[in-house]
């Protein structure tokens, strides 16, 4: 049995670009990714998503502007933690993305996403995000570079997915 830990992952987007941040410390160091982190005790997932976005790139987003677009699960050979990642997208927000101690934000055109410098799983599930499709993915890693096996599929509705998951 795995010990499930819930994380958030937020992407700001506009018509032509997506905001990624270069991780400057900790897990995923030197990789481009969305903004997010662990959900704290007594904190809702959506509140954690808002907090992490503010802490990591100084941008504020309203609850109602954050859309849950996907669910990812990661396990690592020999480790008992299951990372349960809730993926969100927003196109309405306040503030200018600004570099912090944790992340250096940069807008990327959709055709220029730096997959070579991202988590290997991103290349597999990003096509769903880019086509505005809801998605579910599970990935089992050996170390942090090799995906041993995975499954990704499109979802019709996140609420139904979570209702049936329990
Ligand atoms: C394995 N494949 C993966 N593919 C894509 N994204 C991944 C990921 N694995 C983790 N992520 C995301 O990376 C962030 C880590 O966050 P992380 O820095 O550990 O959290 P937090 O800020 O709470 O940590 P500290 O406060 O520094 O301890 C968090 O958004 C999480 O969703």
Automatic annotation (TrEMBL):
Cited InterPro entries: 8ODP, NUDIX_hydrolase-like_dom_sf, NUDIX_hydrolase_dom
Organism: Euphydryas editha (Edith's checkerspot)
A single MF term (Gene Ontology): metal ion binding
PANTHER family: 7,8-DIHYDRO-8-OXOGUANINE TRIPHOSPHATASE (PTHR43758), OXIDIZED PURINE NUCLEOSIDE TRIPHOSPHATE HYDROLASE (PTHR43758:SF2)
Enzyme class of the recorded protein, top EC level: hydrolase
Cellular component aspect of the GO annotation: cytoplasm
Nudix hydrolase domain residues: 1-133
Family the UniProt entry places it in: Belongs to the Nudix hydrolase family.
Keyword Cell wall biogenesis/degradation: no
Function: Oxidized purine nucleoside triphosphate hydrolase which is a prominent sanitizer of the oxidized nucleotide pool. Catalyzes the hydrolysis of 2-oxo-dATP (2-hydroxy-dATP) into 2-oxo-dAMP. Also has a significant hydrolase activity toward 2-oxo-ATP, 8-oxo-dGTP and 8-oxo-dATP. Through the hydrolysis of oxidized purine nucleoside triphosphates, prevents their incorporation into DNA and the subsequent transversions A:T to C:G and G:C to T:A. Also catalyzes the hydrolysis of methylated purine nucleoside triphosphate preventing their integration into DNA.
Quaternary organization: Monomer.
PROSITE patterns (alphabetical): NUDIX
EC identifiers of the protein: 3.6.1.56
GO biological process, alphabetically ordered: DNA protection
Superkingdom of source: Eukaryota
Catalyzed chemical reaction(s): 2-oxo-dATP + H2O = 2-oxo-dAMP + diphosphate + H(+); 2-oxo-ATP + H2O = 2-oxo-AMP + diphosphate + H(+); N(6)-methyl-ATP + H2O = N(6)-methyl-AMP + diphosphate + H(+); 8-oxo-dGTP + H2O = 8-oxo-dGMP + diphosphate + H(+)
Cofactor: Mg(2+)
Keyword line: Hydrolase, Magnesium, Metal-binding
Cross-referenced Pfam families: NUDIX
Signal sequence range: none
Protein name: Oxidized purine nucleoside triphosphate hydrolase
């Amino acid at each position: 049995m795995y010990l499930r830990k819930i994380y958030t992952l937020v992407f700001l987007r506009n018509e032509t670009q997506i905001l990624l941040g270069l991780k400057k410390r900790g897990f995923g160091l030197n990789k481009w990714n969305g903004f997010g982190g662990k959900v704290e005790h007594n904190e809702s997932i959506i509140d954690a998503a808002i907090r992490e976005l503010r802490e990591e790139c100084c941008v504020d987003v309203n609850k109602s502007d954050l859309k849950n677009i996907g669910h990812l699960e990661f396990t690592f050979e020999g480790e008992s933690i299951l990372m349960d990642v809730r993926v969100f997208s927003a196109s309405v927000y306040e503030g200018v993305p600004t570099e912090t101690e944790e992340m250096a934000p940069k807008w990327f055109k959709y055709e220029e996403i730096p997959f070579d410098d991202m988590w290997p799983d991103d290349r597999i599930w990003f096509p769903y995000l880019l086509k505005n499709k809801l998605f579910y993915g599970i990935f089992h890693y050996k170390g942090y570079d090799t995906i041993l096996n995975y499954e990704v599929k499109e979802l019709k509705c996140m609420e139904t997915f979570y209702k049936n998951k329990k």
